[in-house]
Structure formats: structure tokens, C-alpha cells
# Entry
Amino acid sequence: MPTPLFAYRKYWAECFGPAHELPTSRAEMDALGWDSCDIIIVTGDAYVDHPSFGMAVIGRVLEAQGFRVGILAQPEWTSAEPFKALGKPNLFFGVAAGNMDSMINRYTADRKRRSDDAYTANNEGNKRPDRAVIVYSQRLREAYRDVPLVIGSIEASLRRIAHYDYWSDKVRRSILVDSRADILVYGNAERAIVDIAHRLANGDAVHDIRNLRGTAFINKRIPEGWRVIDSTDVDVVGPTRAKVNPYLDTRTENCDSTSAKAEKTGVQAVTILDRPKKNEREVIRIPAFEQVVADGALYAHASRVLHKETNPYNARPLVQAHGDREVWLNPPPIPLETEELDWVFELPYTRLPHSRYGDAPIPAYEMIRHSVNIMRGCFGGCTFCSITEHEGRIIQNRSEDSIIREVEAIRDTSKAFTGVISDLGGPTANMWRVACKSKEIEGKCRLPSCVYPGICKNLNTDQTPLISLYRRAREVAGVKKVLIASGLRYDLAVETPEYVRELVTHHVGGYLKIAPEHTEQGPLSKMMKPGMGTYDKFKVMFEKYSKEAGKEQYLIPYFIAAHPGTSDKDMMNLALWLKRNKFRADQVQTFYPSPMATATAMYHTGKNPLKRVSRKGESMPTVKGLSQRQLHKSFLRYHDPDNWPALRKALKKMGRADLIGNGTLHLVPPRQPPKRHQRVDPSTKTFATQHNGLPRNPRRKGRS
# Structure
């Protein structure tokens, strides 16, 4: 088991004690009595000392180990001088793009530059560069070439291997190669960053730190003592043939029966891997950068293998060649225990933006200032989402007592608190304390989702602990209302009707946002989302309990346009469902191919990595052209007169001109009304989905 975060011997600089605010200038360092920083964190976000902001968490965790930590927030990047503002750190620079990937932060799904930035004071845009981790790293190398450089944050995490880059429309190298960093930490990096800091403080060289979980680095060659398994021996690419597949259990059949079944069904035959030699360890070689650039099937295959190797209890290291260099990925970190997560969230954060910003609003902070993060991770496995790749699918839980202490701290310290806790949640609203019934099964499982295609029989779905938490939070003196704003996994919620009753009766502020994402089975199967039957079941419960509570409340469904696997017909059927149910999406989400997501591999290759990848196997429609992406978005906004010409043209082309007319069963009218006389059907409800590519909650940063 790893050393608990709070069990390390503290560094000598502990004698300085914790800073009220981590310093961002030489003057602030002088006021603290520091002659230098041990560690300097460079971030693309404004510095907010709140546990929902990555630089604050890592900074306070390192400070609690006794290190002096400085913050360079949003430095001007056109020269190296601003990166010298705090001097040369004694141990290392840590580089982060911020809570969001810098490209997703700066561009819309249509690749248009945003003019604002929710993570910047006054919502000001252009305060960070494109590909911030690479640019910051390059400037730091110019400023201090010999200082160890550690990169992290979701931007580095999702670019740890060769990855498709939507903005340049090509496969890019691992960010380790382009940044020239010494080591990359991925996921929630507390364990790795604390160990790195103590090892460097003890005199270890950064290039000798090679055995840490949750890290990646570059080797010139495979070290001795490692047995290399080709990934095509793990998961076949190409026609069916007898191959090694350790993901399947072969103990119940002998080789003859397995081969016979393969001949009948066309399923690949399976053999047993040779046992490794004594003291020999295994590493899986995935196709090289040059191979995945040239061959989409190999790219999809590499994506599939990587996602199969994400369980920290059974994952093996991966290696990917980039020319004559080897990018090495160690297995994911062991999840934090409850006591460790409590410790992280109860460090002495001010819960405020740094005083340098004065009264300037920071929208992302305003959104979460009175919210409480109760957990990490997500086992949903939605293919368009990056939470699992970043935080993992094993839920890490805070204790109820720790959560309540944070609620009380908000009440006692925030001058702006009006009695409303805006959220008790995290990546999802209702996975707190939900886990596999068996640690043994959990340790062996390689499934990408615990709830698709149905809820796993080994998953404990009891959400009564959440009911207890909600009730206790409501009873805190001075708290008038506790809202739940994180995304609700409604297929999980219906397993505990009493939870739905509690949620609907006490914790919905008039509208509850949920995400069926689509109505049609084709795209839903590529998203790994449940069918609309589960939505309908939840809707019945929602309306029943709202009526019992005497409240008029509404469900707000989110939908995605242009997701891989979606046809024009699928979008038409979704639009008809919206029309029948009198929904009008005010803002909509077009699929955004974020690095390393499974759906991004689908988008880039036209292959389905959810199944064994074959060059002649299943292909799927991918919506890439701007005009078709806009058409799919127009179907979601069928009620907008600006979209009617394109929809009429598309419907005629699809042979569905019968949907053009003025009746209630028609989708669009036959004529364009004068703009000043546009009519709005009063029988439809207009709901703003706010599904516009910016984070609804900084904790749900994987979902763009």
C-alpha cells in the first residue's frame, strides 16, 4: 500500500508555517520571510485558493509537506522574463494549463476563438496561450534550463500518449516530447507529486524517478528485466486469427473447444500467455506514434488497449515509441482513502481568489464558491467524457463529517453566504459511496463502465447514505437550502426511489438538469448511455414526487449533436421527440473531440474501439464537415427560424418533406416569416440548457 499523504516526514521548511495565501510575487515572499521557493507552480488559471482549483490543491498539499510553494498565475508568455518573477525554485517547477484544457478553454466546438475565460478575473479572454503546458514549459526551459520540470493538469493528463488533436486535425506526439518535461503526472496527482517532491529534496535525480504510479516519462530504451508484450497480442487488429487475449477468461474451456467455438462464431481463438520468468515484469507496447499517424485502425486499437489498462489494481505499464524514444506510462495511482481525501479538502484554503485580484469577479469561482465537493471519479464510462481517463472509475469518497465541516466553514467564513449551498456533488451528483460489492472483483475488472449496457450486478447501488448526508446538511444551523447542481446519473437514481423522493422534495431549485444525450439507439450505443426508457422511468418518479411535495418543477434534458455514430435521421428523430415533448433547447452542445476520449478515437478513425478493432470491421458515421455539424445542431434548435431553411432543404433530401408544414406534427413551417413578425408557439416551453462547451461545474472538467 502507498504511504498515506499525511504520513511523510515533513521537509525542514515546515518551520515557516502555512501561508495565508501562497505567494505570487517577490514582495509576498519577502513578507513571509522566504529567500526562495522550493517549488513553483505555473498555471493558466487565475489563482483561486479553493479546493475546486487544481493549483490550490497541489500547492496546499505540498505546503502541508513542509515545502515553500509559490504560484505563477497566468504569466505573460511571449518571453522568459515573467517566468523569473519568483526566482529559481530549489526543487522543481510544476506546470499546469489550469482546470480546463487550454484549447477547449479558448475555442468553441466549431473552432472559433472565445472572447471570454471563466477562469480569469473579469472573465477576460486571451490570458493564456494555446497549448499552455507546452508554451509554459518552453519558457521555463529558456529561463532555467537545469531545473526539473514536472507537467500535469487535465491538459497533460489527456495528452500523455500520441493523441488526435481536433484543432490541427492531426495526430500529435505525446506532450512529454513537445514540452521537453522531465516527468508527467496524470490524474489527481497528489500521491505522485508528494513523492516526487520528497525524493528530489532527499537528493534523488529527477531522471531516476521511474517507478511512480500515475506518471509518464521518456526512456531511450526498455530497461532490463521487463518482458514486452505487443498490444496486438492483447487485442487483435485485422482478420480473425488465433491470438493471445488476457482480457478473456479461458480457464473453463480447453484449447480444442475454444478453437471449435471460434470456427462456428467467427470470434477470435484464445491462447494462454506464457508465464513471465522469475523477477520479470510486463509492459505492453502499443503502436508507435508513426504507426497511429498512418493507420486509423491502429490508432483505435491503441485507444482501446489504453482504456483496458486503467484499473489501478490490474493495469500494466504501457510504452509507445516516438522515433528513437520510448514514452513510458506507469499504471494509474491507487485511489485516495477517505481519510486522505478529507485531509486534502481540509487544508487551510482561504476559499477566495488571491487578494491581487481585488473585487474583480472570476466566473468559475462565483459558480462554486458555496459548493462542496464530496467525491472524485466516475464509473459511467461515457465515451465523450474525459473524467474516467483523468480521475479514474473508482469512486473516492469524503467522510460525512468532513463534508459537514466544510458546509459549516462556508457559513462561518463567506461574507457572501446567504444560506444556500449551491451543490453537494462532484463529477456526478449521486455516486458518493457507490462501489463494487467485492474488492476482489473490482481488482480484476476491466470493463469501461459499471452501468452500461446495464447496471452491473456487482455494483452496490444503495444511495441511502446520500439521503442521510442531505438531511444532515439541511440541518446545519444557518443553512436554508442545499441544492444539487452536479450532473445526476438518473439510471442509478431510480434504483433507490427514496433517494429520488428526497432529491425532488428538498434539493431541486425548480429545474433539474439531466443528460440523456440522445433518443436514438445508434448514437446512444456509441456514447455508452442508457436508452430513453430509463429517462421515462425517472421522469415519472420526478413528476410524482414533485406533485406530492406541492412543487412545480421541470426536468431539463441535455442532448449532444454530431456525436460519432449519429446520422441525419437520428437527429431528425431527436428533433421530433423534442417537438412532441414541447422542449426548446436554448443553448446546445455539439460534440467536442477532447484528447484521448474514446469518442474522439471514433471521430478520428471511423472505428469503434468499444469492440475489437478490425480494418474490415464495424465502421460508423462520423460528422466532421462544418455544414453537417451545423445541420445536426439545427435539428436540436428546430424552433429557431434561422435554422428553418437548412432544415427544409435537409428534410427534402432525406425524403421527409412530409415534416414541412404548419401542423403540430410538422417539424418546420413551409415559409420563412418576416423577422419582425416571427411567431413563437406559446404551447412550447423554452429551457436554457447552458450546454455551450464551458464547464457548468469546474469539478466536471472532463466533460466539455
Summary: The longest helix spans residues 532-548.
